[in-house]
Amino acid sequence: MQKLNNENSDKEIYKITVYLRGVVVSLGCLYYGFNNSSLNITQQHISYLNGWTDKSEISLYIGLITSSLSLGCLIGSLLTSQFLIATNYNFRLCLMLTDVLGIVGIIEQIIDHSFGHFLLGRLLAGLACGLNTTIIPIYLKEFTPMALRGKTGTFVQIFAQLGSFLCVCLGIIQPIYSLDTTVEDKQQFIQELISQQSFFEREIAWRLTLGVPILMCLIRIFCLYSVYNQPTPIQMAQRNQLRALKLYLSDIYYPNRAQACYQAYISHVKESIREVSEHSEIYQQDNLKQSDLFQSQGKNKNESMIHQNMKGEVDFIRTTSLNRSLLASDDLVQTEIYNSFSQKKSRKMQRSKVRRFMLGLIVQTASRVSGLSALTFYSSLIFSEQIKNQSLNYILIVILGLSGFIFTYLSFFFIERAGRKPLILLSTILLMISQLGIAIFSMLNMFIFSFISIMFFLFAFGIGQGGVTWPYTIELVNQEHVSYCSAMRWTWVLIIGVTFPFTNQLLGLSGTFFTYLGATFLCFLYFLKELKETKGLTKEQVESMYY
């Protein structure tokens, strides 16, 4: 089959056009990253508004609200395949409907600060996040030339980190509580502090912080409706929308390469149709031959003897075949050879599919069991246990947010130069070193070194498992398995989101990160066995590596 975009060079491509589409579509990842951190910034004020003052009470309610976002992400990712099928793989419509769902989720959260509204709102927002983080990587692959797929693939995590950082920056408008530890009636003291706040601090600040993602949804809906309203290039070719395909390719490529890509798409569709027709003809021929076989078994013995005398060589094949009693002609022998070859190829393809699917699940697992979700959801809780100065606590959270974005952005420059496999392996090794540092220095109560280890952790995650995980997964697994890989990702986010407050109380930060270190090491051992490079390879080439 002729390869599409078979040139790995990024020359003769209007990169700005490609990146601009990627930025607009990746606003859905910005939405996810913002929601991922919004509760971390506002949880103290929201807890006090609801009268949750006890640590165990805060851990319970905030843990449930945090987990509802992850649960929604898990459900959304599992529904992606059905969502795409129901819309006939209309990616544009899927993303627009996802934005509508995301807006509803945000509105539900900012209507009221009560537990029920937050639980439902975060669940709906999570559904939108799960759909976004599964559909967007597929969309970017479909609309990006092969030479740039690695770079646009990093947009998923880059924009998630950017959303998290922007949300953290908005924390500056949140009220700061300086609690007097000598106060006996803590709840009454907090209520007095709230009553002294301005209306903006009490009612507007947290709503503004949580409501910003609505703008991201509205911008993307407008752009998808008015500008990026085409089907995928392969869909244009399949639907005979040749004029639209030419116009699209002329916006992406220089003239000569646009024409070459146009011919490649047409040839690809024709070859696909021809392959389907050939398989259909073979199937019909097999049915006809089986019908002839049953008819030939009804003939008299004399006619069968004459037939055997005329074709002695065929008779020899029949007598030596394992299925000699069923063979009726020389053509059936050829059919059996073809079927045997097809079965062997089918078994190889199935084995490859399973191996790639399992690796995709482990790659997504490794990116979550490292402990990033714990730092994203609970960094304010982690720092507040060791730093009583709330202003310093907030500054450190901002530094983490900015560092996470910058380090992930570095993967944009490295992914096409170094490749996927080296970055993932290097990232995993560095993550284990940083996890060990966090665990040891936390156990020794050396906060400065523990914080430096967290910064190193963000660097290790960003350059590999952060930016590279999604483009590698999309290149590795079949499209129908992407939603399951995404679901695995969100399953671990949910597990860590629920368990961290309790493991932190039972084992401490050091014990918790020793656990994450063990899980990451197991993933690393699996990577050494199965991880292969996919940079610049077609689907067929990646598939053949895992036969």
TrEMBL record:
Residues 21-535 form the Major facilitator superfamily (MFS) profile domain. One of its GO terms (cellular component) is membrane. Gene3D superfamilies: MFS general substrate transporter like domains (1.20.1250.20). The chain crosses the membrane at residues 12-34, 58-79, 91-111, 117-140, 152-177, 204-228, 357-382, 394-415, 422-441, 447-470, 482-500, 506-528. It catalyses: D-fructose(out) = D-fructose(in); D-glucosamine(out) = D-glucosamine(in); D-galactose(in) = D-galactose(out); D-mannose(out) = D-mannose(in). Homodimer. Belongs to the major facilitator superfamily. Sugar transporter (TC 2.A.1.1) family. It is a multi-pass membrane protein. One of its GO terms (molecular function) is transmembrane transporter activity. InterPro entries: MFS_dom, MFS_sugar_transport-like, MFS_trans_sf, Myo-inositol_Transporter, Sugar/inositol_transpt, Sugar_transporter_CS. This is Hexose transporter 1. It holds the Pfam family Sugar_tr. It comes from Tetrahymena thermophila (strain SB210). It is found in: Membrane. It comes from the Eukaryota. SUPFAM superfamilies: MFS general substrate transporter (SSF103473).
